[in-house]
Amino acid sequence: MILPLPESFERHVLRLRRGTVEAIRHPAATTGPAPGRGETVVMVPGHFGSKEDFRLVMPLLAASGYDCWAYDYTDQFSATGLDSYNDYTLELLAADLVELVGDRRVHYLGHCMGGLVARRAVLDRPSRARSLTLACCGPHLHEVRHRAMWTGLDAMLATSGLMGMWPTVQRLLPEDDEVLSGFWRYKLQAMNHAYVQGTADSMRVTPDLTAELAGSGVPVLVLYGSRDRRLWTHEAYHDMAVRLGATEAVLPGAAHSPVMERPEATVMTMLDLLETAREVCR
């Protein structure tokens, strides 16, 4: 199932050495004030997310002159693609992202797990990164709360599969939005099991790379919602931001998905970082 998007979006299928990536693009505005003209923002989704999660922020950033791309992970929704858990480490997904970016110098926006993947891509090729926005993404997933989450995920995958998440997802969706409801059911049914388990296994052991990221010199924004305590506490976000020397932004009223809950505020906050990064990268 394809989630309908406005005509201003483009859909792309990109072939990498390891497999196939589906992407959406919103080209930069060609009229009006466009301070970011010629620069690209690359958006990386969370564990159970997809490229469509960024559909509200992409037109807003494009209106300010940024060429916006959002990707699914390699064969994330393919039953005939990569089929080994070992194919879905965060390091390999970051290498795919670096391949996608190529020689462009880009701004990264990563949501939750996407922030961990984008962080690794920045560290792999810091010269190709103009900035990094970590949206609801903390330093690691090694705390007691995380271990309980992994245990629950293992049990769900062993019994009901990803559709075991449907009752929870359904409560978060607008009751009268049958299109969005159908899209989420499709995602949970179609998501590659090797991707789900492999990325989870990788996140369990991914180290805290805050010091390395701070040493990269890449400008960073740590952004999260005022109601977001799902995976990381506000104290954990704040401590990471301090160690990074990063800008920290707490969006009022948002929870774990500010790119969907507060798209305008997300973009306004990001634009400050992108402008700062332009000065740093000159």
TrEMBL record:
The keyword Hydrolase applies. GO terms for molecular function: hydrolase activity. Keywords: Hydrolase. The keyword Hydrolase applies. Residues 41-267 form the AB hydrolase-1 domain. Signal peptide: none annotated. This is Alpha/beta hydrolase. PANTHER family: HYDROLASE, PUTATIVE (AFU_ORTHOLOGUE AFUA_2G14860)-RELATED, MONOACYLGLYCEROL LIPASE. InterPro entries: AB_hydrolase_1 (IPR000073), AB_hydrolase_fold (IPR029058), AB_hydrolase_sf (IPR050266). It comes from Actinocorallia aurantiaca.
